[in-house]
């Protein structure tokens, strides 16, 4: 986005608080302070936009900085000025360690907990930067945009009535993956809700659905991820969708929600949503499986039997590999 020059007076013609205006609706919003920042900022912007759940970013380019000529001296001054740097500044030098324990100097971009590190090294007389993605497992931003490929179980045991909370890896050979697969096998009337997260997983989704003969309905943003000409296709569900998938979701004993957030446009009143699945969950023959890249979606709208913190593609690939490793019969109601 173009912006009035940094030297322009306050409330100058065509100036606007664009960064503040865009902050609520973007993953990251920033105005560059020097042409030196531009290549770093753009690298970081693409990193944020594509990391985890894709989303928009906003970079504001003041008019005078668009015409600024970049020199090697400016780069040296920029690096020196950020050593060690203010913790609240966008760019600052930090000390990092490799897996083998060796220390190295890095340029850290972004706010604490949601940044990107660049290793700094000199090639002849020029500085070069190599990106080193920063991951903090304890930060909610990274939990939402860096899926852990884990499965979280939550149900009341039909044997002794005790509540069970457990977790395990999403892996072909893991016990938790087998539990998810066993629940799918037990179900008599399962249905797949394919959301926006399935848009890059059409092939995997098709294999999974056809292997088990499970019908597929899509959300508005998931339309097109499953070929509507196929016999298992139910078309879009929800307030603006078709009646058939809405009825079938309500009557299903197992909901497999892949890449959708249980928006109220598809659930309606949550107290009346999927009663048969909850009844099946109490008897451990069904329930709700929710796959989402964002950990904050876990238990947000409802408490699923299994929450899978992963991408739709990774979940489907793992399930398909598990299906190939075992003899699985198509599910028949």
Radius of gyration: 25 Å
Say how many strands there are: 15
Strand order of the largest sheet: 9-8-15-14-13-10-11-12
> What's the CATH H-level superfamily name of the largest domain?
TPP-binding domain
Largest sheet: 8 strands, mixed
CATH hierarchy, class of the largest domain: Alpha Beta
Could you say which structural class the secondary elements and strand pairing correspond to?
alpha/beta
Poorly predicted tracts of residues: 133-138
Strand content: 15-25%
| N-end to C-end Cα span | 55 Å
Average predicted confidence as pLDDT:
82
Please count the helical segments: 11
Instruction: Provide the CATH architecture of the largest domain.
Output: 3-Layer(aba) Sandwich
Shape: elongated
